[in-house]
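#data-curation
PF: Archiving a pair of folding outputs for the training set. Convention for this channel: one message per protein, sequence first, structure tokens after, nothing in between. First:
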Amino acid sequence: MNSALLLKSDADSREGLIMDELSQLPSRVARLESDVGHIKADVADIKVDIRRMDDQMRRFKEDVDAKFETFEQRVSARFDGVNARFDSLEQRVSARFDGVSARFDSLEQRLNGKIESLQQQFSSAKVWALGLYIGLAATLLLVMAKGFKWI
């Protein structure tokens, strides 16, 4: 085989393919334009759907916000009721503790009075005991002096 013939025959077949493709080019372009038109229509539909979903989401958000606001109001009202109960309970407990505190104060005053009187009695008892010890010692010395005939 002759290489020149081979090169020529390959080029001839390629030319035919290129010419065949060039002849199909307008139909392909028309098909692409049609496909692009369909894509544009689909994109427009998607935009409409997205806008519709955006509106639905806004309405849903507003509904949820309104529900949460009413829920918050109900919970706040309940907590206000609980706070009022705690306040009244605190006042009652405070009044009771004030009464108990007053009783402890009066008890403390009575005990302080009794302790002071006991301290005075112990002081007088100390003086009395000292006098008694001195008298006892003097009597013992007198008895000893008489016993030993010192007097």
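PF: Second:
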Amino acid sequence: MKKTTLLIGLAVIVAAPFLVAFLPVSISCPIKPGSPVEEGIKFEKEGWEHALLESKKQNKLVFLDAYTSWCEPCKLLKKKTFTDKTAGNFFNTNFINVAVDMEKGIGVSLSKKYGVTAYPTLVIADSTGNIVTYTKGYLSPEQLIEFGKYALSHKKTD
């Protein structure tokens, strides 16, 4: 009996580190200011109409990311460009940013209004929804900032 207990105890001691390695681990880690989660372009959650109202109120242009859920370059923009700290600082300071799926809700009418035929299409519009400039396809953070600067240089003053 003592031998069996000793062998079982020894087996548990030897096997325990291997078993623990496969247990799921949950670690609580608060988000710290300046972390990548907080960087990048902040998009309005309340949609297109609200973005136009904010644009008028804040005297800023509207940056519209016209995307679809299946578009790979759209996903790349979200992952690489829109999360960039420098692009985020520039666009959050100078624009009201909104992203709209062109195949859902108001996106369908916006797609028709702006003649969107490729994705992503990036539109910069004034507070009445008139296009200042637009471009199609993936842009790097640096290219996006240049696109934004171009729009600001063509902004009509009220």
